Amino acid sequence: MSDERERDTRSGAARLRGVLARTARISRWEVSRSTGTVDRKTALVLAGLLLTVGIVGISVADEGLGLEDELYVMAVDEGSQYHDVAVESDSFRVIGLEDLEIDDGGEDANADVVVTQRGQIGHVGPNGAVAYDAFRDAVEEYNERRLSQEANQTAAYPVLVDLEYRDRDLGGATADGDGTETDESGTGDDDSTTDGNGTGETTDDTGDDSVTGTEDSSDGGGTTDGTGGTSDGSLQVPDVGSGATGDASGTPGSISPPFPFQSLLLAFLFVVPMNFVIQAYGSTIMDERIKRRGELLLVSPASSREIVAGKTLPYLVGLVAIAVAITLAVGGGLLSVAAAIPIALLFLAATFVGAMLARSYKELTFVTVTISVFLTTYTFIPAVFADVTPIALISPLTLIVMDLQGETARLGEYLFSTGPFLASAGVCFLLGLGVYREEDMFAQKAIPVKVIDALASRLHGYRSVPILSMLFIPFVFTAQLLAVALLFAIPETIALPVIFVLAAAIEEFAKSIHVYAGFARSKFESSLRIAVLLGVLSGVGFFVGEKFTHVAQFVGLPELTVGVAAFGPALSSDPLLLLALFFAPLVLHVVTAVISALGASRGQNAYAVAFVIATLVHAAYNLGVIALAA
Predict the structure, then answer these.
(1) Distance between CA 533 and CA 539 in Å, rounded?
(2) Of 30, 78, 131, 404, which has the fewest CB atoms closer than 10 Å, so is most exposed?
(3) Nearest by Cα to 78 from 95, 93, 92
(4) 310 pLDDT band (50/70/90 cuts)?
C-alpha cells in the first residue's frame, strides 16, 4: 500500500509539474507575442498613460491637483488689507491697480475682482461673480488662519465643536425613531464645549488683525446634523463595518460632512489601468479566433484550462505589478493591493467571456466598453460614500480608500467586499471555458446563442443543474447589492416596488437560464416529469447556495428598507419564526423554479411567460414574508 501511495504521489507531482510547465510556456509565448505586436503608437499611448497616472498620483498625494491655482486675477494695492488675502490664496493672481485695464464699460477687463483704494470690492468681466464668491471664501480662510495663530485661543474661538462618530445601536431604536434611547438630539450639542452661553453661534471678526467685510461663515445651526443621521427613523444604516469615521474638532463653521476626495481619487488610479489592459487582453483572445491561431493551441497537449491560464497570467501579473507600483507611489499598504486583485480578476474574467462571445472586433469593442463602464461604476460609486455609510463596502475600492486614510479592515469586511468579485470571476472563467472549443471559437454565432452554448456545455447530467444554480449566487448577490446601493437613497415609495420586482427577477433568471439552455440544446428530454425534476433540483441548489449569503443578515443589510426587500428581513430571535423564515424559501424556490422549467421545456416564448409568472410569485412571497415578520 505504501508503494502504491508513493507512486500515486509521484504521479500527481509529475502531472502538476507538467501543468505548470505548459502554463508557463504559454505565458512566455503570450508575452513575446504581445511585445512583438506593440508598435510605436501603442508604446506612446502606454507611456502617456503611465505618465498621467504618475503625475496625478504624486500631485494628489502631495498637494492635491492644483486645478484652481491662479484661476482668477485680482487688482489690489499692496497697502490694502485685502492684499495679503489674495497673495496667500492659491486661486488668485495679484496685479496692481495701476495695471488694471477695463474696456467696453466693464464687460471686459484683465482682472476679475477689483479692490479700490477706499476698500470697496467689485467684480468685472464674465468670471467676476464666481471670482467674487471665491474671494469671500478666501477671506474666511484667511481669518481662520489668523485666529488659529492667536495666543488666546479661548477668545479667538468662544465656541468649539468636537464631532465624534459612534456606532448606532439599531436594536435599541424606537419605532418612530425619535431618538429616545439616548440623550442626544442628533445636533451634536452634547459633544461641543462652549463658553457657557449655550448659544452655539459663531462670532465674526473676533481677531484684531482679521479682515472685515464678509458675512458669517456659518450660522452654527446645521453643521453637525450628520452625527446622528436622520431622526425620523425612515432609514437605518446597516452595520457593515464601522460606518463613518474620522472624528473632527473645530468651530461650527469648519465642521463639514466627511468626503474622502483625495483618497477616492487616488483609489480610482487603481482602476484606470485595468480599462486599458483588458483591451489588450480581449484583443489577443479575439485575434486567435479571427485568425484561427487558436487551432494550434487546441491540438496541443495543453488543456483548455492551461491555455486560458497561460494567456491570462501575464496580464494579471501586470495588473498586480501596476497596483503595487501605485500603492508605493501614493503611500498605500498591503490592503490596497489585496483589494485591487479581485477587481483585476473580474475585469479579466468578464473580458475573457466577452471576447469568446463577440463575433468581430467591433462587437468586442462594444463588449469591453460595456464591461469597463459597468465595473468602473460598480467599484467607484459605492466608494464615494466610504465615510458616510457602510454599504460602500460592496465595492473593494472602498477598502483602498480606507487603507489610504490609515484605517484598517476586519477579515469579515474584506471577505464581504471581495468575495462576490472573486466568485464572479471564477464563474466567468468557467463559462468562457465552456465555449473555448473549435465549434464555438471559430463559428459566427450571435451572442445570445453562444451564451446558451456556454451554459449547456456545463450541463453533464442532472447533478449539474443544482451546481450551476449555486454558482450563479455571486452574480445574484452582486446584482442585488448594486440595486440596494442605487435605490437606498431615493424615496421608499419608488424604491420598494422596483426592488421587490428586480430582486425577484434576478433570482428567477439565475435559477432558470441554465435549465432553458439544457432544453434548448437537447441536453434533457422535454417532458413534464423532467421539467419538474429539473425545477426541483435548481430550486434546492439555489436554496443551499443562498444560505451562504445570509452573511448579509448578520452584517445588518436588512436594516435598510430596500435591503429588506432584496434580502428579506433580519434574523428574528423567535426560534419558530427563525426556522420558518429559514426554510420557507426552499418551498418558494422549488415552486418558482418548476414554473420556469415547465415554460423552458416548451420553448423560448413559453419560457418568457413562465419567467414573468415566477417573478411575480416570488415578489408576492417577499412582500408577504416581510409583512409577516414586521
Answers:
(1) 10
(2) 78
(3) 95
(4) very high
Alpha carbon 126 to its chain centroid, in Å, reads 39
Tell me how far apart the alpha carbons of residues 544 and 539 are, in angstroms, rounded to a whole number.
9
- 160 three-state secondary structure: strand
Judged against a pLDDT cut of 90, whether residue 77 lies above it is answered with no
H or E element: which one contains 113? strand 113-115
Report CA 185 to chain centroid distance, whole Å: 32
Furthest-apart CA atoms within the chain: distance in Å: 104
Stretch among 22-26, 210-214, 557-561 having the lowest mean pLDDT: 210-214
Q: What is the pLDDT of residue 51?
A: 66
Asked if 540 and 590 touch (Cβ cutoff 8 Å), the reply is yes
Q: What confidence score (pLDDT) does residue 39 get?
A: 57
Q: How many residues are present in the chain? A: 630
Region 356-372: what's the mean pLDDT? Answer: 86
Q: How far is CA 575 from CA 203, 501, 588, in A?
A: 58, 29, 20
Looking at residue 251, its pLDDT comes to 66
Instruction: Specify the pLDDT at position 236.
Output: 32
C-alpha cell at 395: 465595492
Q: Please write the tens of the pLDDT for every residue from 264-289.
A: 677 778 888 888 888 889 888 888 88
Q: Read off the C-alpha cell for 539.
A: 430550486
The β-bridge relationship of strands 192-193 and 121-123 is unpaired
- Say how far apart CA 275 and CA 263 lie, in whole Å: 20
Pairwise CA distance, residues 75 & 92, whole Å: 10
Rounded to the nearest 10 degrees, the angle between the axes of helix 304-330 and helix 2-36 is 70
- Give the residue among 529, 534, 540 at the shortest CA–CA distance from 514: 534
Q: How far is CA 170 from CA 48, 174, 177, 235, in A?
A: 50, 9, 10, 11
CA distances for 19 relative to 5, 13, 311, angstroms: 21, 10, 14
Q: What is the per-residue pLDDT for 423?
A: 86
| Separation between Cα atoms, residue 207 and residue 142, nearest integer Å | 11
- How many angstroms from the chain centroid is the CA of residue 283? 26
**Least confident among 46-50, 82-86, 434-438:** 46-50
Contact yes or no for 357/457 (Cβ under 8 A): no
Cell digits of residue 243: 460606518
Helix H or strand E segment including 248: strand 248-250
Distance between CA atoms of residues 406 and 409, nearest Å: 10
Averaged pLDDT of the chain: 75
Q: Tally the C-alpha atoms within 13 A of residue 93's C-alpha that lie toward its C-beta.
A: 10
Other CB atoms within a 10 A radius of the CB of residue 375 amount to: 20
Measured between alpha carbons, how far is 532 from 518 in angstroms, rounded to an integer?
A: 14
pLDDT band for 80, please (50, 70, 90 cuts): confident
Distance CA 564, CA 483 (A): 12
From the list 424, 294, 407, the residue with the least C-alpha distance to 347 is 424
Strand bridging mode 102-103 / 108-109: antiparallel
**Measured CA angle at 615 (ends 611, 616), to 5 deg:** 120
Provide the pLDDT for residue 624.
83
Which contiguous run of DSSP H or E holds residue 95?
A: strand 92-95
Is the pLDDT at 403 greater than 60? The verdict is: yes
Residue with cell 498625494: 61
Task: Annotate 482-521 with DSSP letters as a single string.
Answer: HHHHHHTTS-HHHHHHHHHHHHHHHHHHHHHHHHHHHHHT
